[in-house]
Amino acid sequence: MPSTRPLPLLDRFGRIHTDLRVSLTDRCNLRCTYCMPEEGLAWLPKPELLTDDEMLRLVDIGVRRLGIRSVRLTGGEPLLRRGLPGLVERISGLPDAPELSLTTNGIGLARSAVALRDAGLRRVNVSLDTLRRDRYTEITRRDRLSDVLLGLAAAQVAGLAPVKINAVPVRGVNEDEIADLAAFAVDHGYRMRFIESMPLDAQGAWDRSRMVTADEILERLGERFVLEPLPREGNAPAEEWRVVGTDSVVGVIASVTRPFCGGCDRVRLTADGQLRNCLFACQESDLRALLRGGADDDAVEAAWRASVAGKGPGHDINSADFRQPERPMSAIGG
């Protein structure tokens, strides 16, 4: 009997892509200084956004025909998408359903964690750059720290584990809280991850000199904790360490100083249906136009494979030829 397993989604460097990031919206209820201007951005008009049916069809093609095994829902802020539990339920109900997770700022998580878990969501990552209310308000331009802390607790109670916290240390802003954030995660049973800042802001104001490197992060952590290195899990972007004397794990994603492009297994779908074969891609493939033009699954699969086949070897942040993508992170999806 012939195998029904899909052919791998390969690029020209032999990397197999099994991880799909799906942006549900470009809108956000925060205005983080390292992401967008205070007045926000010009959001995508609703008719340009993929409908739930369109999004479900693309995820289904990815899983059934291309070997996608994990899907992470992102934004903008994905909890702003109306009817999100229903979409999660539909994705988790697909044959050979992918492992389904979500990245959020946590503001709406306290009221939605149980519904999302019941719909089939398995894990959450929550962005949190500071534990100080005044500093949180300064960074995000919104006084919502208490909502985020409630959301973290609700996700843990709901069993969306391990609950991960993502923090981006920025020099002169919050690098003095690296050890405090890790201690908070250890005390509450969360998993802490620090991410080097990347040139994906809407203002184009990223400054390498303000980026706190992985080595600096580890030095700060080492002042308070003893860390035991752990083996890297597959193509996961995070290097991880166990905090000795606890069951807690802390990770560092060193996208700039220790690029892991050689093992990248990710592809991204924007909220308006553009396929991106790299976070820093300057070109996109329009899958929405194919769907709305009546293309069959064969044509969509072919476009998807062609996009991934053209993926470059890496992001080139450290090259003089690097060009920042026109879309900011909020419009690409993490």
Could you outline the blueprint of secondary structure elements for this entry?
Layout: E1 19-23, H1 52-66, E2 70-74, H2 84-92, E3 99-104, H3 109-119, E4 123-127, H4 133-140, H5 145-158, E5 164-167, H6 178-188, E6 191-195, H7 214-222, E7 227-229, E8 239-243, E9 249-253, E10 266-269, E11 274-276, E12 285-286, H8 287-292, H9 297-309, H10 329-332
Structure, explained:
The protein has a single domain, classed as TIM Barrel, CATH 3.20.20. It is 30% helix and 16% strand. It has ten helices and twelve strands. Strands 7-8-9-6-5-4-3-2-1-10-11-12 form a twelve-stranded mixed beta sheet. Strand 1, helix 1 and strand 2 form a beta-alpha-beta unit. Helix 2 runs parallel beside helix 3. The model has no long low-confidence stretch (mean pLDDT 93).
Write a brief caption for the model.
The chain is an alpha/beta fold and 334 residues long. It contains ten helices and twelve strands. It has a single domain, classed as TIM Barrel (Alpha-Beta Barrel).
Spell out the key features of this protein:
globular, 10 helices, single chain, TIM Barrel, about 325 residues, alpha/beta
CATH architecture: Alpha-Beta Barrel
Let me know the largest β-sheet: 12 strands, mixed
**Count of domain modules:** 1
CATH superfamily: Aldolase class I
Total helical elements? 10
Helix content: 25-40%
**How far from one another are the termini?**
40 Å
Shape: globular
Task: Return the average pLDDT rounded to an integer.
Answer: 93
Contiguous uncertain segments of 5+ residues: none
Multimerization state: single chain
